[in-house]
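During the reporting period the student researcher (J.K.) took over the structure-prediction task from the postdoctoral fellow and processed the backlog of single-chain submissions. One of the processed entries is reproduced below for the supervisory committee.
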Amino acid sequence: MKRKTFCLLAAAALLAGGMNAHAQGAYPAQPVKWIVPYAPGGTTDVIARNLAARMGPDMGQSVIVDNKPGAASIIGATFIARSQPDGYTVGTADSGTLAFNPAMYATLTYDAGKDFTFIGGLGKMPLVLAVAPGFPARNVRELLALAKRSPGSISSASSGPGSPLHVALELFKQRTGTDLMHVPYKGSAPALQDLMAGQVQTMFVDLPPSLSMIKSGKVRVLAVATPQRLSILPDVPTMAEAGVPGFEAYAWQGFVGPARLPDAVVRKLNASLVAALRHPETRARLEELGIQPMPMAPAEFTDFVHSEQKLWSGVIKAANIRLD
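J.K. obtained the following structure tokens:
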């Protein structure tokens, strides 16, 4: 009787082990939740929903976008970091989450270097230097001449303290030795409205929310902060062409999970993500919004994050930007 019981238990254990092995090899076996640390409708949400719609059928499970906005992406980032490392909770982490916040906050509820698995890149939003329609400078050299003639007299808006638009302004000031007066707003929309109206004179803007205003002539762009000219704005010079060599600035987003995600899960997610980013329809949709798809292998994205952290922590420290 004891021998029979032992054999039955052993068989049950083998069966359970086989079922577990099958379950582990069948990822994903249930819907995947994609955490977006911003409200619905914005650029981050649009990118996530376009890619999730493509990745779901590819992986054989729904990829469900779950918005958790607030506290400069800290709420969403913390949720991802504290989730089970099983691949069923992943999400967006951007330049603010990974490169700016660690330099601007004395304490965070997540560790940007230890609490995430870097899965791949999502997209870059190139920044451009825009001015009000009636601003007298017609190019960057004329702007710099005005700024150096009257330090602190030229206003420059941003979407808020510590935002990509603000730190790009600080990098510009540091690289050119100029003093522009920072005017922070609560979001890019009111800042752009005041730029169009001439209430502020200059502003670094990212393309998705500003492209229609640029194309309609409601604001003027002096230069793009990219290594090459943008196909969407072919007549606008780069910063290097405009006299500020080596100046690049983007708002960017990446795809992360909690630390210690299994390698097989990371490979599966990255392969599906890269395929979605390279799909002609998805790529065209993102590019028409001013978003440059950023497909990267996990190791490549990890190196990219580390280089961005090094660059922007130095800029933020020099500008003494603190948000706590």
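The committee noted the following: The first strand starts at residue 32 and ends at 36.
J.K. will present the remaining backlog at the next meeting.
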